[in-house]
Amino acid sequence: MFKGSDLLIAALENEGVERIFGIPGEENLDIVESIRKSSIQLILTRHEQAAAFMAATYGRLTGKPGVCITTLGPGALNLSTGAAYALLGAMPMIMLTGQKGILSSRQARFQVVDIVAAMKPLTKLSRQIVSPLMIPTLVRDAFRVAGEERPVRYTSKCPKISRRRNARKSPWFLLTRWSCRWRARTPSTGPRGSSCKPNFPC
């Protein structure tokens, strides 16, 4: 019988995944078994944080998203440090966490954490698989988003830029080190804008 875990691993193989870092647990045993029957190598770690760091570093060195897997609850939250490390370093990484069935669980909400909401500030995309039919699309979207360049937030660095009318006419901007002011520059007219002296030649 072709299970949802088999479909997930097949989708990862289709994305070119060769290694997965992580720790097996009760909630991801089906995925671990599907990995055993696939061409993907499961690299065991002693801690979830180490799996996240290894996946992030793998993504940094290869340019392809590194993949790590953990169990639910506290095990999934242990990925947060590695997620922040990957976010600050712009390293592509995919994190897979386990979750128990809420309606069928005999332990009620024991060790159940809203990991989707917890990881939103540290990730570009945070989703929950609610049906096996959405696995291929969700995996493709995850790898597409992980491979995108990190957006540059100009307005978050200098809010005053949004209030300048002539800023839109300039093709590019230079940020000085001495102050949070933009110096707009065009090839024909040279530097203009603020009066602060830049730390590099214009």
Describe this structure in words.
- The chain is an alpha/beta fold.
- It folds into 2 domains: 144 residues, 3-Layer(aba) Sandwich (Rossmann fold); 39 residues, no CATH class.
- The chain contains 8 helices and 7 strands.
- A 4-stranded parallel sheet has the order 2-1-3-4, sandwiched between helices. The chain has a 3-stranded antiparallel sheet with strand order 5-6-7, with no helix packed on it.
- The radius of gyration is 22 Å and the shape is globular.
User: What is the helix/strand order?
Assistant: HEHEHEHHEHHHEEE
In CATH, the homologous superfamily of the largest domain goes by the name: Thiamin diphosphate (ThDP)-binding fold, Pyr/PP domains
Strand count, sense and barrel status of the largest sheet are:
4 strands, parallel
Question: What Rg is obtained from the alpha carbons, in whole angstroms?
Answer: 22 Å
Mean pLDDT, rounded to whole units? Answer: 77
Q: How are the strands of the largest sheet arranged?
A: 2-1-3-4
State the CATH class of the largest domain. Answer: Alpha Beta
Please give the share of residues in helix. 25-40%
Tally of contiguous helical segments: 8
Low-confidence spans: 152-202
Structural class of the helix and strand makeup? alpha/beta
| Anisotropy-based shape | globular
Give the termini separation. Answer: 66 Å
SSE blueprint and pairings:
Elements: H1 4-14, E1 19-22, H2 29-36, E2 41-44, H3 48-62, E3 66-70, H4 74-77, H5 80-89, E4 93-97, H6 115-119, H7 135-147, H8 154-157, E5 172-175, E6 182-186, E7 190-193
Parallel strand pairs: 1-2, 1-3, 3-4
Antiparallel strand pairs: 5-6, 6-7
